[in-house]
TrEMBL record:
Family stated for the protein in its record: Belongs to the peptidase M24B family.
PANTHER family associated with the record: XAA-PRO AMINOPEPTIDASE 1, XAA-PRO AMINOPEPTIDASE 2
Tagged with keyword Protease: yes
Organism: Brachypodius melanocephalos (black-headed bulbul)
Sequence ranges assigned to domain Peptidase M24 C-terminal in this UniProt record: 154-217
Designated name of the protein: XPP2 aminopeptidase
Domain Peptidase M24 as annotated: residue spans: 9-147
Pfam families: Peptidase_M24, Peptidase_M24_C
Keywords associated with the record: Aminopeptidase, Hydrolase, Protease
GO molecular function: aminopeptidase activity
Amino acid sequence: SPLSPSNGSSRTLSAREMYLFDTGGQYLDGTTDITRTVHWGEPTPLQKEAYTRVLMGNIDLSRLVFPSNTAGVMVESFARRALWDVGLNYGHGTGHGIGNFLSVHEWPVGFQSNNVPLEAGMFTSIEPGYYQDGEFGIRIEDIALVVEAQTEEPFLTFEVVSLVPYDRNLIDLSLLSPEQIHYLNSYYERIRAHVGPELLRQRLEDAYTWLQESTEP
């Protein structure tokens, strides 16, 4: 399969490029699907802006409050707006349902025109991206649970359950709104609270140190 690594097609990663890794696993109590993009060196201005705008789209959709029984396709453009603002876009869906120890891409939840309306209890991915052919690719994918929002009328919002930091090296803070920065800081606090003690319990001190550095406000 062309998707499997081989000695003929593999190459050495360099700190001078972006690295997108789409990862996850099947566990007895659920399925995970999460994508992060990193750069270990000096990203170009375009790479940094594109990454930040993908992150902005991820945040804008994740923190959206919307009426019950809203179709995913109605809110999908919130994940694209920050990219659209500067004439960028991505050519894939914004998210898909995810099974419980079942399919990683599970029908019928998602943001396409033929998906069912969003309801509390559904899990969907939120995964905007940006790709420049032959140069680099960016995707930031989280899994989110649809939950009831703290509003008088029955509205919905998302609770992101993928607790993995984003790459600080690629974020241009000057592009983010105060609301987006507040969301990021709250998300990082949740990562520290949930993942930090587990890393200590497993005596993974290096990972714990990395987590603390990666989740600084």
